[in-house]
Design brief:
41% of the residues lie in helices and 15% in strands. By secondary structure, the protein is of the alpha/beta class. Strands 2-1-3-4-5-11 form a six-stranded parallel sheet, covered by helices on one side. Strands 7-6-8-9-10-12 form a six-stranded mixed sheet, sandwiched between helices. β9 (276-281), α11 and β10 form a beta-alpha-beta unit. α1 (8-15) crosses α2 (19-26), α4 (83-98) crosses α12 (300-313) and α7 runs parallel beside α8 (197-212). The longest helix is centred in the N-terminal third of the chain and has 16 residues, at 83-98. The chain is elongated and about 80 Å long.
């Protein structure tokens, strides 16, 4: 049969089912069992039936489909190859598989409200998980009024109407800084951008801990760095060239911490003998670096389960309350004892 002559009636006859059953199968209707659906889709493809307009959002038999969308610009640059992004993606993926759902990685990279709305309204998915807030807090609040089928990975911010799941960044930043203070470090650098909401909260935890430990905060030791090794390395190089005295570094991410370690070692500064360094994320390379990186771990598996559950069970933004995932201090070689 050619594509021009193949009709729905032909597919139904070849499959030995009624026309109504063939139609339901092509639309992934739950009234048709998976085995019959798979047979009918196979026949439709083999006989060039124009079926693609009927295709469901994901493979036949899935309980649902979740779209993943990464806004831009994030503090992490929105790169799929980012180690923490991959860890978070794995957490969401495992949770979706446990629920029998497919994941759809969207090409959309929203930069404003209209982009966010398009990600929801043009998707055939049951809901959307936005991996990051960027500067879109107000836009997400506005989106709640139009559509609530979404959950956001990120910080919990003032006057927030949408549901976000994220780590307790303030507690994590505080814990990292107090750990260095307990080791006797007094001139502690905070290394990272302050614009991304999560890094901003980690900085707040750093400030809280400095006050709690009775240590003064030197504005010269608040050093900017993007979420990448090279940026952090350049920032610490600049601190060293300026002759600034410091004996500890709290980094906003593991990549930033690794850049700090590289800069320090290149300058002949012993880690952790002269300067202790602590990261944030506990991505896989942190345990294999030399020296192995002390860090604040985020529970990406729990975060993934929470986001999927909020989306599927609570309707997303309006029905589910935001939640923070606890963080954990992982002590390794870059912080001594």
């Amino acid at each position: 049969m050619s594509r021009k002559t193949t009709r729905l009636e032909d597919i139904a006859r070849l499959a030995g089912v009624s026309i109504a059953t063939a139609s339901r199968a092509l639309n992934d209707n739950p009234a048709v069992n998976d085995r019959t659906k798979q047979l009918i889709w196979k026949l439709a493809k083999e006989h060039d039936y124009p079926f693609r307009r009927h295709m469901p959002a994901g493979p036949i038999g899935a309980q649902g489909t979740i779209a993943l969308v990464t806004p831009r610009p994030q503090g992490r640059e929105g790169r799929i190859s980012d180690p923490f992004f991959l860890e978070l993606l794995a957490g969401v993926g495992e949770a979706a598989r446990e629920r029998g759902c497919d994941l759809l990685m969207s090409h959309i990279s929203p930069a404003n409200y209209e982009d966010l709305s398009a990600a929801l309204n043009t998707s055939r998915a049951d809901g959307v998980i936005f991996l990051g807030q960027s500067s879109l807090h107000s836009a997400f609040n506005r989106l709640v009024d139009a559509d609530h089928r979404f959950v956001v990975w990120g910080a919990e911010l003032p006057e927030q109407d949408y549901c976000s799941i994220g780590s307790d960044n303030i507690s994590g930043g505080r814990r990292a800084t107090l750990h260095l203070a307990r080791l006797g470090r007094k001139r502690i650098v905070f290394l990272g951008d302050l614009d991304p909401p999560e890094a901003m909260q980690r900085h707040r935890g750093y400030l809280d801990a400095m006050g709690q430990a009775g240590l003064s905060v030197d504005a010269d030791l608040i050093a900017p760095a993007h979420f990448e090794v090279e940026s952090a390395e350049a920032s610490v190089d600049a601190l060293i060239r300026r002759g600034l005295d410091f004996d500890g570094v709290v980094a906003a991410s593991d990549q930033i911490a690794l850049g700090a370690v590289r800069a320090l070692l290149h300058a002949g500064i012993d880690v952790p003998g002269q300067v202790s360094v602590i990261g944030f994320d506990n991505v896989p390379f942190s345990r294999y670096s030399r020296p192995a990186l002390t860090t604040i771990a985020q529970d990406t598996m729990k975060a993934g389960r929470l986001m999927v559950s909020k989306l599927l069970d609570h309707g997303g933004a309006t029905a589910g309350r935001s939640e923070r995932v606890p963080t954990e201090l992982i002590v390794r070689e870059t912080c001594g004892g």
